[in-house]
Amino acid sequence: MARFDTWESYFYPPPDNSTMRNVADIRDPNALHSFEYSATALRQRQLNADPSLVTHTYDAEHLRAIHRHLFQDVYEWAGEYRSQNMLKSGTMRGFADVNTGEIDSYLAYAKRLVQQTDWGRLDRDQFGAAAANVFAHVNQAHPFREGNGRSSKVFMEHVAQQSRFTLDYGRVSPQVWNQASEFSRPDIGRYDVVPDSLVPVFRHIAVERTSTTTPGVDPAALARSPLSASYPKAPGRSAPTGQQSPPRGPARPGRGYGTNGPGVGR
Predict the structure, then answer these.
(1) Where is composition skewed (Low complexity) in this entry (predicted)?
(2) Which residue, among 223, 73, 78, has the nearest Cα to 147 in the 3D structure?
(3) Considering just the CA atoms, what is the radius of gyration of the chain in Å?
């Protein structure tokens, strides 16, 4: 495998340096976006049809196996931790530091939360709070150079399988989801996540499980650009037709969405 040990090493050299290196050697970012979506959508359908393709251990290896399966046709480094730190402008700190073992620390704590929770006994409110706490730690770990959102959503679907709920991501707009995820992150100089903003979101997307229930579509993946950040730059857009907005969670003003550039998370 090629070495991905600098920010620039994830991209092709000029003049294609706006496109991430990929298995199909696609140099156009828009074409890569289309290829990535179709390839990962197919792999996700495989996971939905056969959950045994990934061992459900709810730890770092579980998340890495999900990412490896989803992105195996797209990126050579699928399933591997990012080698570079990622951040966003604003008042929040960067994602987990690759130099201090924070990725594993956040994911280990998420595993403990999953294991210590009696998911089958939770009502909707309790489920919303528990799921928000787990996801906030996984999101802050942000272990991969790209594809954290899709991988963590599948991970949360696996967590939810222990409960009487499934997750319908189509019930919340990408803008609400991304802002709640952003607000859950630690402030500068702090380590602990703040999952409060995610609680009403998970409560809203929790759907009582039936014999015919299937995981919901992730609308954010449909519109995601390979050049965009993990969180959209235009959170003011209204939700697509047919989507619902959950009750507003706690606001954390002053947090920005950042811009692309070296060291800026995607």
Answers:
(1) 219-230
(2) 78
(3) 17
Half-sphere exposure of 32 (CA within 13 A, CB side): 23
Angle at CA of residue 150, ends 70 and 205, nearest 5°:
135
- Three-state secondary structure call for residue 208: strand
Can you list the positions of beta strands (E) in 75-175?
A: 165-167
Please report how the helices 60-71 and 148-160 are oriented relative to each other, as an axis angle in degrees rounded to 10: 120
CA of residue 149 relative to chain centroid, distance: 2
For domain 8-223, give the CATH superfamily: Fido-like domain (1.10.3290.10)
Q: From CA 218, how far away is CA 40, in angstroms rounded? A: 12
How does pLDDT run along the chain (266 residues), one tens digit per residue? Answer: 678 999 999 999 999 999 999 999 999 999 999 999 999 999 999 999 998 999 999 999 999 999 999 999 999 999 999 999 998 656 678 999 999 999 999 999 999 999 999 999 999 999 999 999 999 999 999 999 999 999 999 999 999 999 999 999 999 999 999 999 999 999 989 999 999 999 999 999 999 998 665 555 454 444 443 334 333 222 233 333 344 455 554 455 443 323 333 343 43
Query: Using an 8 Å Cβ cutoff, are 148 and 139 in contact?
Result: yes
- Report whether 157 contacts 206 (CB < 8 A): no
DSSP class of residue 207?
E
Residue type, 244: Q
Rounded to whole angstroms, the Cα distance separating 258 from 227 reads: 13
Cα torsion 74, 86, 148, 73 to 10°: value is: 10
